[in-house]
Amino acid sequence: MTGIWYIVGFAVAGVSFVFLTIGAAWLISHRNRGDLHKGLPYESGIDTFGDTHGRFGLSFYIYALLFVAFDIEVIFIYLWAIAFRSLLLGGFVSMLLFVGILLLGLAYAWRKGVLTWR
Amino acid sequence: MTVVGRTWERLTIPGKILAVVIPLGAVLTAGLAILIAVIGGAVVQFLVDNLPLVRFVVAATIVLLMTVPSAFLIIYMEMKVIALMNLRYGPDRVGPFGSALSVVHGLKVLMKEDFTPTGADVPVFTLAPVVVYMSSVMSLLVLPFAPGLFGQDFNIGLLYFFAMGGLTVVGLLMAGWSSFNKYSLLGGLRSAAQVISYEIPLTLSVVGVILLAGTMSLNQIVLGQAGNLFDWYIWRQPLAFVVFFIAVTAEANRTPFDLTEADSEIVAGFATEYSGMRFGFFFFAEYVNVFIASGLTVAVFLGGWNAPFNWPWPVAVGLDPGSLGIGLLLLLTLGPPLAIVVLGLPFYLLNSRIRFWQALIIGFGLFNVIAVAAVLGLAFLSFDWVVGLLWFMGKTYVFVFTFVWMRGTLPRVRIDQLMGFAWKWLLPAALLNLFVTAFAILVLNR
């Protein structure tokens, strides 16, 4: 139970440290609103054009999907790894099947060329 | 008033400083003494009644404040080591061998203008460095530094560690999205794609260690490697170590996997629009992450705070200061002046250009060095956590040096090589390692 409070406490301590430092920097640093061009996004010197949050590669989404599948798998594997010494052969075979099914999915994605960055 | 004013005018600057500092110090000391006398007992009673709270405050303070010097040290190491590798001098102006330059850099960043672009989403823009830094501080909570010296020993230590490490992605993505800049957006998305891809091999490669140790608690994993050099998990999990080290380099966004801030392609990646202290915190967190990554590698694969051979210490030093009686008092009062004179005398006698007071100053310096060395040596002999901390820090800084070395020698990879390598090589290798380990445990039955 104390562990939870340690996590919460560390989060609060870390956040307050950052805010205190940023606040101190805000107090002693130089400030200048500047003109219109100061607030423009940096695009190598020219004024920006087009939509900033526009279109970007689809590959990012596909990797995210693959990540979700395998990350859930990792959670199961961790628990299985802790209990492995009491599961032994049965546990080994079932994990082989479980990972095998997931690897089929990975093989399908690989075959489809998803893993090649375009 | 004029008398006071005229006297004040006549003082030199050190005199003015002393005239302000000495009365102020006297008043503050008196105030502190009165405060302790009035409420000291109650405060001590409160602290004794709330020991867990005291332990938490001490742990959080040490961990938070520890990040600052370790980041400065790693920044200095990076500047100096890469300079030497490039046959340059590197920093050599501020402090001995330029060692204070990273502190000056930190102060400079603190005083720079912290600007928010007009198009930015201000709350998210401000919170992004907070999230990034917070995730590294929270990872430090479970890192075992020495026997009995850790923030908290969770039974899900490794899982917690990777969960907190994964929070970094959220911060980088927030920075990329809220900056309202195309380079930032690309940098943020690249970092997300890279970090989540390498998270899978990273988390899968340690499963072999979990199988061997039978626990996820980092403290227990380190205890399971007690003994000598050959009890470390690196010998039983060599493939896992290679996969883990590559993946942890990518997780910490270090060269050769620093595509998120590839300055030749996307300016500065997610940090393009950041300036001042908010920019500083991204890089602060990056260097803390280098330390954390090295520390985790050491804890999981290289025995943590265990010595590489059977360490005969801690030994009980049979020295009881109380038994000396009045001799202790004499030793404490007469020892230091005598030692200073004895240490300073050779300089005075052998070099005719050194005056006696200069020799005394040299003697004082030498005496301090010897006294500190004696105290540290005594602590090293009698407390096992001092030994453990030294071994842990030594191994960790070997890995920090390796990270810097890689930055000095390896070129940046292309993004298609980067993503393909994680999914086509590291993931199958990690799974292979996992099943080989499980099979070995099954067959050898141990």
Keywords:
heterodimer, A: 118 residues, mainly alpha, 68% helix, B: 446 residues
How would you explain this protein's 3D organization?
The complex is a heterodimer of chains A (118) and B (446). With 118 residues, chain A is mostly helical. Chain A has a domain at 58-111. Helix content of chain A is 68%, strand content 0%. Chain B is mostly helical. Chain B has two domains: 103-313 and 385-444, no CATH class; 322-373, no CATH class. Chain B has 17 helices and no strands. In chain B, helix 3 crosses helix 4. The longest helix of chain B has 37 residues, at 13-49. Chain B is globular and about 80 Å long. Chains A and B meet through helix 1 and helix 2 of A and helix 3, helix 4, helix 5, helix 6 and helix 7 of B.
Domain module tally of chain B: 2
Oligomer: heterodimer
Please give the number of β-strands of chain B. Answer: 0
- Indicate the overall shape of chain B: globular
What's the overall geometry of chain A? flat
**H and E order of chain A:** HH
Largest binding interface between chains: A-B, 65 and 78 residues
Number of helices of chain B: 17
Poorly predicted ranges of chain A: none
What does the largest sheet of chain B look like? none
Extract low-pLDDT stretches of chain B.
none
Structural category of chain B is mainly alpha
Beta strand % of chain A: under 5%
